[in-house]
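Here's a chain:
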Amino acid sequence: MLRISNIYQRPVFAILRQTRANSSFIQQPKPLNTIDKRSPSQIANSSTLDIEVPQNKAPVKPKKKRPLLSDSKYEQQGYQLPSYAKNIGEWVIKLLMIDMDKVRAGPIAGSVYYAECKRQGLQFEDEPLSDTAYFFYEDIKLPKTFSQWFQITALHQWMLSVRMRAMPFKYGRNYQQKLVDRFFRDMQLRLADEMNVNSSRISDQYLKDYNSQLRGLVCSYDEAFATDDITLAQALWRNLFNAQKNVDITHLEAMVKYVRGQLYVLSKMSDRDFAFGKFKFVSPNELILKFTPEQEAEMLKRANEEYNFEINGKKPIPSEKSKLSYEN
């Protein structure tokens, strides 16, 4: 299998390693447009331009579909183990004092969060689209191809990586590596099972090409995150829209709002909530508004009730323990 290096740890954009305590990460004015109170889908559908729609048919009908997660029964069942295995596992964790914040990177980033990224643009011939996939393929008129699915998945993976880089370094790095490793492993299997690519040489070439694309889009999106919406629109145009000459500017506007909104929600999640896999991408049909001080206070109250064991009087089992902060 092609080994993918940790592309998210390069020092090109060291500014993005800041913690959430840095106001430049939390205080993002762009996703909270108080004038245009439309969802990304509403913005995309407001266009009056008559642009030719690309071929919107899946190129290959798969001989079999890959599961959203993996073939492992434990992963399919949410890592539910038999009671005796749980008891043994809890005893081992306590005895060896295992750092569960590191261990969670595999099942959370490599399973839960990868599945969340994968499903956003997932499409198969003659099957209905999810709300988010409909937004990408029908509202902003992207072609239904494997390469386009890669671009959509990579965009969502990048947004998660931004949040992972705001975690303590030794944990965030591990989460990022598990996410990208799972991405390329799943693509290798999808190329064989769904795209009928039976040659390992051709498959490896595809993966190398996609790896190069991923490196490029991470650089361009990082630059956009650290600058402004114009730079973000340019990055989306080059990557997601494949630098189309006749791209609809309204569709770019919708995508900028979609991305900034997701980043805002991610910035408001505590490290512990995020590390436990509680983030879900917000539907493009929904409008993201700025949290009020009262809402943020309520979120902290709920976190105290769940995680502050001195307050709620609960005794956590070894696998539930975490050193990550639950405060925003």
